[in-house]
Amino acid sequence: MKRRGISPVIAVLLLIVIAVAAAILTYVWISGYVGTLQAQAGAQQLQERIKIDGVEISGGKITGVYVRNIGDVEVTIDAVYVLDTSGNILGATIGVGATITAAGASHITSVSSPTLQEGHTYIVKVVTTRGTEVTYQFTYRA
Q: Distance between CA atoms of 37 and 47, rounded to whole angstroms?
């Protein structure tokens, strides 16, 4: 009985087709992955980033909040909240409207604050018009 196998020419052609298909799939996967990384990096650069540097206290009440813009875009402060450690709102100032330029700072003085109690911990939350939130926690010592 004569056994016949795949001719060497057909075997070489099949290997070339498999190698080209693998190269195309690898190229498509890598180009999609790199595109995703570039899109994420671009979006991250344009995000709002703010930081609360501290709070000003006078007469047992919060009279000011120092906010710094550490991002690359201008931000507008929409609200300032004073919370207890359980997350209950003790005071809120809505519609602040303070605009902070990129890499700028602001001292927000229109803060609705309860009378602070000695030894209690409070959280100040600042929210921008785009929804970025940042918190600052402190314990009041008279």
A: 16
Tell me the sheet residues that pair with 93.
80
Which residues are CB-contacts of 54 (< 8 A; sequence separation ≥ 6)?
65, 66, 136
Strand extents, DSSP E, the chain: 50-58, 61-69, 75-84, 89-100, 105-108, 121-128, 133-139
> For the whole model, what pTM was predicted?
0.67
Query: Dihedral of the CA atoms 15, 20, 21, 22 (nearest 10)?
Result: 90
Task: State both tokens at 13.
Answer: 């052609």
Please list the alpha-helical segments (H only) found in the chain: 8-45
Q: What is the pLDDT of residues 92-116, one digit of tens each?
A: 999 888 899 988 898 888 888 889 9
